[in-house]
Amino acid sequence: MPKTEEFERKNPMDTRGSSLRMFKKDDPEMPPEFREFMIKLLKYAHVENNANPHYKVLLANIAYAGLRFAPDGRAMTIEAEIIKQEVNHGQIVAKIIKSLGEDPFIDKEIGQYAFRIPLESWIDVSWFHGLIDRVGLYVGIEWMGSTYEPLAEVSDQLEKDEFFHASAGMGYIKQAVRTADGKKEAQDQLHKWWMLNITGITLRDRIEVTSFFDLVLVWNKGISYGLFQQESFVGRLVLASFSFFAVVALAVWLARAEQTRLTAIAIGLVMGGGLCNSFDRLIRPGVADFFALHAFGFHWYIFNVADIAIVAGVAALLYDAIFVRS
């Protein structure tokens, strides 16, 4: 298990040099306001609580995605350990809430948008652990300074566990980006993952970035720039299959013919962009496009990073054919 050597460790029970008072369980001198604050923090604001049925659903979703998409047995073992630790965290928090004289049961949906992110691929699972579990790591670090002894006692272990989860996620990403296709998928999915779930663009209208550039969500059910729209899944499957065979043809071309460095890079860009858009067609309502350029009343097609890669690759191929090889 990874070690948290990058953080300066301090005994969470050590209050020397501090004017803060450490309150124990059933401490008669604990102010009512402090008790109410701890209940509000752990029962109503914090996610991990086994007495909340919605937390169980969240864990089930993470476990299902992690074990379903794990590329090998080692990754499955890590995912199983992560779920085991998260269940333990929920039990710990429920026990601490009970120590405050409060029933830990609460039938409350988890409000944080990050936990409503759909986990539809191994890259999604990897980014979830690498980014969202890192937030849990920071929570554990903050809890080390808690003045409620039962919470301070477990904060060190909670921080270690969340560091393990976040490190596992980033380790998955490092493994994925060892190949050119994996690197492109990780970059493209991070871009879409961030736009769809972190900015909350699905719940917002057009976001004006500059006078000529906006962010807006459009589900493209056709090919690049919205051409040849397909409403049915079968239609999108046909487009995805066509893209896949095109990528295979490009790969064969790249392997068999003698290519310049520019041509190789260009083919890689087209292949990566095509694969990423095909992946979207299969797991989402369509390809998620976000970038909208406009000027003088003219609006260009809405596009995404994969489209940029495809256009850049095609442009490089044309440049190579016209100006380099000729």
Summarize the model shown.
The protein has helices spanning about 30-45, 55-70, 75-100, 120-145, 150-175, 180-200, 235-255, 260-285, 305-325; strands spanning about 205-210, 215-220, 285-295, 300. The protein is an alpha+beta fold. The N and C termini lie far apart (about 55 Å).
Features:
326 residues; alpha+beta; Ferritin; 4-stranded antiparallel beta sheet; 4 strands; 6% strand; elongated; disordered N terminus
- Named CATH topology of the largest domain: Ferritin
Average pLDDT number: 85
Would you identify the CATH H-level superfamily of the largest domain? Ferritin, core subunit, four-helix bundle
**Rg for CA atoms:** 25 Å
**Which geometry do the CA atoms define?**
elongated
Give me the secondary-structure category. Answer: alpha+beta
The residue fraction in helices comes out at: 55-70%
Largest sheet: 4 strands, antiparallel
What are the segments in which pLDDT stays under 50 over at least 5 consecutive residues? Answer: 1-9
Number of alpha- plus pi-helical segments? 9
CATH class of the largest domain: Mainly Alpha
Euclidean distance between termini CA atoms: 56 Å
| Tally of discrete structural domains | 2
Main β-sheet, spatial strand arrangement: 1-2-3-4
The CATH architecture designation of the largest domain is Up-down Bundle
**Hey, roughly how much beta strand do the residues contain?**
5-15%
Give, in order, the helices and strands. HHHHHHEEHHEEH
